[in-house]
Amino acid sequence: MASLISLPLYEKTPCKSTVQRTSDFIIFFLLLSLVTYRLLHLKNHGLTWLLAFLCESWFTFVWFLVLNIKWNRVIFKTYPDHLLQGVPELPSVDMFVTTADPVLEPPIITVNTVLSLLAVDYPAQKLACYVSDDGCSPLTYYSLVEASKFAQLWVPFCRKYDIQVRAPFRYFSNDPIITLSDSTKEFQHEWKRMKNEYEQLSNKIEVAIKNCVPPCDFTGDFAEFSNVERKNHPTIIKVLWENEECLPDGLPHLVYISREKKHKHPHHYKAGAMNTLTRVSALMTNAPYMLNVDCDMFVNNPKVVLHAMCVLLDSKSESEIAYVQFPQRFYDGLKDDPYGNQVVVVYEYIARGIDGIQGPVYGGTGCFHRRKIIYGSSPDNVDSIDGKLAEVLSSGFGNSNELIKSAVDALKGKTGHEPYINLQSYVEAAYQIAGCGYEYGTSWGTKIGWIYGSTSEDVNTGQMIHKKGWRSAACTPDPPAFLGCAPSGGPTTMTQQKRWAAGLLEILFSKSCPIFGSLSVKLQWRQCLAYLWILTWGLRSIFELCYAALSAYCIIADSHFLPKVQEPALYIPVSLFITYNIYTLSEYLRAGQSVRAWWNNQRMARVTTMTAWLFGFLSVLLKLLGLSETVFEVTQKEQASNDGDDNDVGRFTFNESPIFVPGTTILLVHLTTLVVSLLKLQHPLAYDGNGSGPGEAFCSLWLVLCFWPFFKGLFGKGKHGIPKATIYKSATLAFLFIYWCRRIAMG
Ligand SMILES: O=c1ccn([C@@H]2O[C@H](COP(=O)(O)OP(=O)(O)O[C@H]3O[C@H](CO)[C@@H](O)[C@H](O)[C@H]3O)[C@@H](O)[C@H]2O)c(=O)[nH]1
Ligand SMILES: [Mn+2]
Predict the structure, then answer these.
(1) Known binding residues for Mn(2+)
(2) What atom of ligand 1 comes closest to residue 294's alpha carbon?
């Protein structure tokens, strides 16, 4: 294949970064100076300085990790046109969609993602789409059945007119007048028909949700769904559509899978679902490449598979690059990113940096994997897999002979079935491998497939691959390949952040910890540092909380933890603060973001670290103590919401969750200390004698500004207000903290 390809399929270019490296260094230098200053004066001060020293050492360590990450930023560029000229035959791809809850993940969202996948620009006989439904919902199934009928019209329409956005809800929500004005009569006619058909499809689904018909009479095709409980039901696998004649312009196969679940059998959440998808697809189509997306991540660039293949089919990649990760981008993002979760700037600077080391971290969605690598092959044996080695590798696959045979084929590089396949004939064997007991005594979840033990199965699995010495590649085509929905409310954002922090810490505190990886295996040490930056999110909460408590304590006890006004050392924290903020602001501006977006992200970074990540940390602590297990709480997906008055869009929302207690407490404490320091109400018996100064007061002011959404929440109503119970609890905690500070101050 290599000789046929003359033009490059992809290029990796470094970003210019002198200014950035210099700024990163200045900040690092200032942090080091601060730590040194602390160390030199440690013995003249008490515990407060020791704590400040520990926190600042941590902040310096984190910045060192950032410095390392950003050092070699790169951009990957792919050329699909060169691919079509150079590659005689494109390989097959199995596409996986996971959904878990028809309420939190409305079926119409999953349907749109599936439709957009079925309609990608790629020979249809090379594609198969598998949907895993962990909710075992007849509604999801019904919606997919209806969607597969609509797809018969939609996919040809997209191909004929080269439609760019192939998720119908997005396509029809874009301004139709512009699309239609300079088009042919025929197109206008078909467009209207298609819009009408799509509206009928959404109506049917809506009606089904409301009235529970027809799925709920559980006859015919729905019989298997009668008496199912979400967490206790047999396997259901249904071939919704099969491209029987293997037509390149037909419709890709579509298969629905709900794996078996039983009470007390661990199902490992998304990782378990991914492994079931991997096995079932191995029997049916056994494509050498697998794409996986979350149910809300529709295809926004129809050439996405071709872009991925540019990297994967490049002659050198075969023994080097394990997977191609597309960035997570979001549609209908709220103006100025009030929840700080659009991650535009993080992608630009952090992700591009990691891309330049050993390659992007696996992000759980929008990623193309090679099947044999998911099956455990490493860069050393990838060229030399013979029958014997393949058999050794396939020993952990479980006792399905069909599966083992397909795995041996996949490992040897012989994949895909011969032209005629009959998916239906594999369904029986598929039931066996989708059973909840199948994985007992096998290597699934440990050495093969998606790795268990963390609710951030993505990072865990990607890291396992990097540890074998594989690299990965990022792909950032324009327009963005996939778009999904980012949480647009306080509670959802907090739950998601909490789960991430917990899942990442689970990896840090397990035997998959990257530190072991870079000592003994082939994880590059700079990649190991990059992983450490990610995995330690939850730990940051402790240091930030401690620092926040220090400044409050110093005001109440009339002590100080920052240099006094007359000390030249004051310039260190002051210049650190100024440089850091100007620098991060410039990053936002350079990435095309507003000043407001910068501020919202700074503020939300403090809020999530000290609240959601704290809860993530605590839940891992409980797990380590054997008191409870971490759970994967599914993030709620909403379609563009038109409800509510426009004034309130982006205003922070709350609910009864205890996750809002720490934030409210921090706010109340610092409001109090701010008043105390302005009115000079400190305790007269304070021990230090040289009391708190403007530095400490400024810290309180800054925190109050960061928690301003909570301040508004104190007076807000409905979902915009912090519940009374939360306020009472927080007020009690704040009171206890202040009381305790005074007690210590009085000795
Ligand atoms: O028991 C489960 C739980 C979740 N999912 C699916 O997993 C996906 C991701 O879940 P979501 O609630 O959307 O989590 P996010 O926080 O939005 O997801 C990010 O973080 C996850 C790891 O924490 C990754 O798995 C995701 O790919 C990544 O987008 C969704 O398609 C779910 O349907 C399952 O299939 N089974
Ligand atoms: Mn998601």
Answers:
(1) 270, 294
(2) 31
